[in-house]
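Handout, section 3.2

Students often ask what a structure token actually looks like in practice. Rather than define it abstractly, here is a full record for N/A. The first block is the sequence as you would receive it.
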Amino acid sequence: MDLQTLSNLFASTFNHDPNVQKSSELQVRKLGAQEGMISSVLQIIGSDSIDPATRLAAAVYLKNRVYSCYFVDTVARPDQVPIPPSDRNNLKAAIIPLIVANPSRSITVQLAGALKNVVARDFPEQWPGLAEEVKKLLSSGNLREVNAGCVTALEMVRAFRFRQNNDVLPKLVDEFFPTLVNIAAQALQSPPTATNQDAPTLLHLILKTYSTSIILQLSPHQQSQQSLAPWGNLLFDVVRLQIPAEAVPEDEDERERSEWWKAKKWAYKILGRLFHRFGNPSQLPSSLQKEYGQFAENFVTNFAPQIFKIYLEQIQLYVSGTAWLSKKCQYRIFTYFTE
């Protein structure tokens, strides 16, 4: 498949002329059934010589194609054209290196969306080496590789977050989370500045991964003191972190959307979830007593009072004008107090 022709088609999908745009989209859709199409799209996304907007259009196509056609229903819908096995294999071989190499966050978001859907269908049986690949990225020491490892770990957890009675998610927690908490603690050592966005981005990704993992269940590893102690210390440190005014936007709405405050938001959310869902014996449903009763007693005795104390400190700093609190963080604090 001619890359230049395909690249031109993607470029035309955001043409100001709606007729040109529609025609290009139809041509891309027709080409979608051809073997090698996904492989060509991956080459376009990874090419530094192609306009970023065109690469983004290709990434959006990839995410949508994987979402709709990576798994085909037993009775396929008319719009479901299966992705050939060779393209599936090439996709799995190329997508993580693309995330490593790509500095564009907007493209990475699209690649991550495609990755999640592949993981949901193929991991672990059809992609047995993925977990080891992620562990290598996380321990590499190279910032881009570590970031890609964090992105991939998040998407793997997202792929299994709503599946009950499966052992995949607890295994992912066992394999990734001890390393993730160390990466996050190290990132937190970097003083908040306006120019350093790597540290808060990593924190944001890692805390979001933890939060996603506890939507339905708390794994045996997460209930252990071996896990609760380092993660608890990390969460407390993030909540306590004082972010200088010069490190975040002056506008309060923009400040709330900054990476540092996104990280803080996730820390508050995790602490609230741990208490409300798993750590409050008085609210723990009888159906969960066997699985989480011991954890809840330990949490409410040894952990919950520390949360209350730290939250009270943050309110005092906010009321005195010493520190700023985002609206979402205020909401999490007051919700915790009422529970």
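Discussion prompt for tutorial groups: The radius of gyration is 22 Å. How would you have guessed this from the sequence alone?
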